Amino acid sequence: MIVTVTVDGQEYEVEIADLSTRPVVATIQGTAYRVWPRVERAPGKTNGNGAAARPQPIPPPQAKATAPAPTATNGSAAPRKGSGTLDVRAPLPGVIVSVRAKPGMKVSVGDELLVLEAMKMKNAVRAVRAGTIAEVPVSEGQAVKHSQVLVRYEG
Predict the structure, then answer these.
(1) For residue 56, how many C-alpha atoms fall within 13 Å in the half-sphere facing its CB?
(2) How many helices (H) and strands (E) does the chain have?
(3) CA 80 to CA 146: how far, in whole Å?
(4) Which of 54, 62, 125, 139 falls 20 to 30 Å from 92 in CA-CA distance?
(5) Which has more pLDDT, 129 or 41?
(6) Across residues 1-22, what is the average pLDDT?
(7) How many Å apart are CA 112 and CA 59, to the nearest integer?
């Protein structure tokens, strides 16, 4: 998810990986940050025996209506305009550790396409849809940039 955040009058596009995990990983201008959202207690609420109610997470901020829709440049898989192909792009900069996808290979949703190591963590890049792999323009040991095409599906 991409949201626009304003800090001291400066706007930043923040890519948030998964709000249900802790810590939440937020990427700002190509740098990933680990974030632990605050937890607040509901004022005056108890659990029935006088003890304070369990903390409830603060709901995530809603993206402004002006937040850009996901595109092929945001690190996710998105169709390229004018073609039936789908590009899977690097969610963050790193080094390709292993490549399982091969041109012509049929994949199902969730199949591991490759493994990308970033900040000493290995991240499996998985198929976001079923289809046939058209091209794999990366190889093991190759350094990749954020949003670089890793795998291309056929129409």
Answers:
(1) 11
(2) 0, 15
(3) 17
(4) 62
(5) 129
(6) 80
(7) 31
Asked whether 132 and 113 are in contact (CB, 8 A), the reply is no
Q: Radius of gyration (Cα) for the chain, nearest Å?
A: 19
Judging by DSSP bridges, how do beta strands 149-153 and 131-135 pair with one another?
antiparallel
Exposure string of 76-94, with b = 16+ CB inside 10 Å and e = fewer, is bbbeeeeeeebbbbbbbbb
Min mean pLDDT across 14-28, 94-108, 136-150 is at 14-28
Give me the count of residues in the chain. 155
Quick check: 2 and 70 in contact, CB under 8 A?
A: yes
Q: Is 23 exposed, middle or buried (0-12, 13-18, 19+ CB in 10 A)?
A: exposed
The rounded mean pLDDT for the chain is: 76
